[in-house]
Specification:
alpha+beta; 19 strands; ABC1_TM_sf; YdbS-like_PH
């Protein structure tokens, strides 16, 4: 008689330790208090600077200095009270923040809703060895929690602890990651639509040489691409601080500078802003002499131009990206450094941009739309590759995007970026009135994604995976009916793409195919991970 062997006990995955509520660093009131003082001074000065200059005396200057000291003390006291009653905690349920002196409040980020955790180090906090931890929560607008400020070393530990909590939510009873299932499910190309030979499986024609396959992007195309990028002396000022994961991209300082000088939008915008300020000052001096009110009125322009230039530099300075088990991790920044994470399973849309003077070296900028993250600025978390080579583009797209369904996805993207729009087989504007759109815009439906090409000097590709589409809107009007066109809006989480002036028949067929995709693809792929309702579980009893 055989005896059944006892089933070995299942060892649960390790759980991060529950932490009690803790306060941030004691220096936090000094780091945050100065913002109140600067804001008060800016308001008072902007409204009364002319009168202050005309009525200046030593006595009034001393009185003003005393008031300034009192404002600093009051600001620090209020910041200290806010710090004293502000605590944070990380446990198995998520992240919570308690704050409030008189009116108490509690902010809570459930682990199931946490999308990303980033570490930011503004200049002043960086000089003091502090950092801010930002927890992005699924939702719209400014849906995030900030823990500011804590020691930089502890910030990295806190980031890892929060990600461990998130991993508990995305782990099924068998120990497999739900996020991984979503990526694997998204890897299979969806069925092709029924738009006909010209639309359903649109072929990209051109004469460009084919590049390495996007699915094989893990291996560089040649030995030269395996060499690490050149690191200039300015780049060495800021070590990247990222060592975990597989290297994806690294932007040397020289390439960043050359890319800015080759970007017509950046150069024209900066020069036009400087010339506008110079002309305004010259006209003012010519008509009325040196006028303090005019100079005060130009202060926003004096601030906006350096901010714009510095923002573009911050976006790519010291940029490093690596692929980890928690998604793409990026580090960037000169004065204000930040580290971001993007979960690959949450990416809804890709946007590729290649300006005119970037075509020679083959540089491309990549931004993404991530569900639950609203940070699309120049140095925001959604800027996945500020200026990358073809090899870095292949690695970035190859690790983040699901297959497009072609025999060579990267070669297809390269053709879409380099070939003239009118030579690409796809959906074009039909009416001669839209002669610019007919030569610069084309919509291509591939088995795995909807791609929209646009741009005159700076060519742009908008890539929307077909299983991410959530809303479709067809817009019509008297003029559209007269011209025989329709506008189609394609919505994903956090973004809506507008495909304008499409032929009516092609637009309706495209809407029909994408509507079926939105209703079936993602729903059936993720059905195994749906929660089981309590009533359904006991329905058969």
């Amino acid at each position: 008689m055989s005896t059944a062997q006892p089933t070995p006990p299942t060892i649960p995955p390790p759980r991060p330790a529950t932490t009690a509520h803790r306060r941030t660093h004691p220096i936090t009131p000094l780091v945050t208090g100065w913002k109140i003082v600067v804001g008060v001074i800016a308001v008072i000065t902007a409204q009364n600077i002319a009168r202050l200059i005309e009525d200046f005396t030593i006595t009034r200057a001393l009185i003003g200095a005393g008031l300034l000291v009192a404002a600093v003390i009051i600001a620090v006291v209020f910041s200290f009270l806010s710090w004293l009653f502000m605590t944070y905690a990380v446990d198995d349920e998520g992240v919570s923040i308690r704050k409030g002196v008189i009116s108490k409040s509690r902010e809570f980020a459930p682990r199931a809703r946490i999308e990303s955790v980033s570490v930011e180090r503004p200049l002043l906090a960086r000089l003091l060895g502090l950092a801010k931890v930002r927890i992005e929560v699924a939702g719209g607008g400014e849906s995030y929690l900030d823990i500011e400020y804590i020691k930089a070393a502890h910030a990295e530990q806190l980031r890892v602890a929060i990600l461990q909590v998130v991993a508990l939510e995305r782990r099924d009873p068998d120990g497999a990651s739900r996020e991984g299932e979503e990526q694997v499910a998204g890897a299979a190309p969806p069925p092709a639509g029924s738009l006909g030979a010209g639309h359903a499986e649109a072929q990209v024609t051109g004469t460009e040489d084919e590049g390495p396959h996007v699915r094989g992007a893990r291996e560089p195309a040649d030995e030269q691409s395996q060499a690490p990028p050149t690191r200039g002396p300015l780049h060495e000022l800021l070590p990247d601080g990222l060592t975990e994961g597989e290297p994806i991209a690294e932007i040397p300082t020289g390439r960043l500078v050359r890319s800015l000088l080759r970007d017509a939008d950046f150069v024209i915008g900066s020069v036009a802003g400087l010339l506008g300020v110079a002309v305004a000052i010259g006209v003012s001096i010519w008509q009325e002499g040196v006028s303090i009110p005019v100079l005060v009125a130009l202060v926003p322009a004096f601030i906006a131009i350096p901010k714009y230039v510095l923002g573009r530099i911050e976006a790519g300075w010291g940029f490093v990206s690596r692929l980890t088990d928690r998604g793409l991790r990026m580090r960037r920044g000169l004065l204000n450094t930040r580290t971001d994470n993007i979960a690959t399973g949450r990416i809804q849309r890709f946007h590729l941009k290649r300006p005119l003077l970037w075509r020679g070296p083959g540089w491309t900028a990549v931004t993404v739309t991530v569900a639950g993250i609203d940070d699309s600025g120049e140095n925001g978390a959604e800027n996945a590759l500020p200026v990358g080579t073809r090899e870095e583009l292949a690695l970035t797209i190859g690790h983040l995007a699901a297959p497009l369904g072609t025999s060579d996805d990267l070669a297809a993207l390269e053709r879409l970026l380099t070939t003239r729009a009118r030579d690409i087989d796809g959906v074009h504007a039909p009416h001669p009135l839209f002669w610019v759109s007919r030569r610069t815009r084309v919509t291509v439906l591939l088995p795995g994604a909807l791609i929209h090409r646009s741009g005159i000097l700076a060519r742009q590709l908008e890539i929307i995976p077909r299983d991410r589409i959530q809303a479709l809107t067809v817009e019509d009007g008297p003029l559209s009916r007269r011209l025989g066109v329709l506008d189609l809006k394609v919505g994903v989480a956090g973004h809506t793409a507008t495909l304008s002036a499409l032929p009516r028949t092609a637009a309706l067929e495209l809407e029909s195919v994408l509507a079926r995709d939105a209703a079936t693809l993602r729903r059936y792929r993720e059905r195994d991970s749906w929660p089981q309702p309590a009533l359904a579980a006991g329905a058969g009893r």
